Amino acid sequence: MTMLAVEIPYWGQSLFRVLGGLVAVLLPAGAIVYLFLFKMMSFMQSRLGPMEAGPYGSMQLLAEVGKWMQKEDLAPEAADHRIFKMAPLIVLVSTFLLVAVIPFGPDALFTNFSVGIFYGLAVASVSVLGILVAGWASANKYSLLGGLRAAGQLIAYELPMILAVLGVVIQAGSMNLQTIVVAQNTGEIFGFSGIGNPFILTQFIGFLIFMIAVQAELTQAPFDMPIAESELVSGYMTEYSGFRFLIFFIAEFATAGVFAMLASVLFLGGWGIPFEWFGWTSIDDVDNWMNIVGPLIMFTKMLLLTFIIMWVRFSSPRFREDQLQTFAWKVLIPLALANTAITAILKVAF
Amino acid sequence: MTALLLAAEDVNVAQNVAFGIIAFIMIVAALRVVTTNNIVHAALWLVVVLAGVAAQYILAAAEFVAVSQVLVYIGAVMVLFLFGIMLTRAQIGSEKGLNNKSWALGIPVALLLLGLMAYVIVDAYEDTVLPDRGPTPTEALSDQFLSIYFIPFIALSFVLLAAAIGAIVLARKD
Hints:
The complex is a heterodimer.
Chain A: E1 2-3, E2 6-7, H1 10-44, H2 60-70, H3 81-99, H4 116-124, H5 127-137, H6 141-172, H7 177-186, H8 199-202, H9 204-217, H10 242-267, H11 290-315, H12 321-349
Antiparallel strand pairs in A: 1-2
Chain B: H1 2-9, H2 14-35, H3 39-59, H4 63-88, H5 106-125, H6 138-145, H7 150-171
Helix pairs in contact in B: 2-3, 3-4
């Protein structure tokens, strides 16, 4: 593989992929926590947020991580120790597996998997296992209840998410995320190709359903029943402290970032800019500098979407358990099915 | 039998080595499923077995089937298993009385099933070697499903529908 006119051997590529994966998971997590969780939430609540560590508290993250790393690795005496220690890792591994299929540029990708989006949805569902056994292994009724609530919710919202993605897959005619990006940036709207054809225009209902399902999958308010701090004391995370809590914490916000990237690939055109602008006609024509600009575009879109996720989180009250399930099964799934059917009919008709 | 010998000739092919490692992990995990004395541990070992199956599918260049395996079995079926176990009985630590009286009957049944499946597979394919090609495109799969396998495919979905309706009927009190 040649990138920026430098021939990179296979071991070098592998090293780049591992480093890239770490950056693609940790950088969004850090950015989301500092920008939105620390600063935006504070401003929305008329306070300043962290101000001491570094300018505008920008070094606060390092202070927090340092604090967590120093703490003792505690586990309740009655807990199932081996599984208790394994559970946060299952959740984090699911995030890392998820980022592996997301393309950041014409060549800046980890793997060009032909069933990319299907794979993404599949490995995203593995994190439920980690959450469920974390709740069980803690030997704590509140934790178990949180784990069970999380499993029920995550299963319920996985369906509308998959069905919402189906519309995009039908329209792009591929499950490969790179092909979906190219389809959006080479598309045209009634013969006008100046802005490509981002699927958010034609699949707006799908986009809404996807973002709602993401909100629920991340257990962010208004879908934070599983970690409801006022009744369950953080649910499955109650017994975790020190760096195992840190892993849960990183996984939560990294997954928010990765899902936002997935949403921007599916609905907002991903790393691409309309190919028309530079006279490219296919993926092979795309200039090499897009490998640098592409990730930046992705990062911007990711921040935009996580801003919306966090905005909703900070400003909505919690759904009741029955409302939450009813909403998934009676509103989102029928709507997503209808969206899929209409997309399929229109695809065949035109 | 010739198929087994054929595989033995170039046993050092990377795929064969990987197959062996994954198969070994799967067998150990499968044994732990039936020997561990904690139900949740048994369910988690079963996850390892099912993940191993997905890995074997990847080795056989069947990407779509592998991903379906992860989505359906690990992401849904096992989560449902664990969910059910945790709602009813899920003690921490070892439990007694998990085996019933006729557990030994399982061994001959399992061996018989192994023999039957091995015979059927070897008998059907003998020493046919798979063409050396890339991953099966999903379009090829869907073309098969919606042409020659259409009737079985639809029939299967009716079975699933019947199961779903049956579950609702059983669960509803009114």
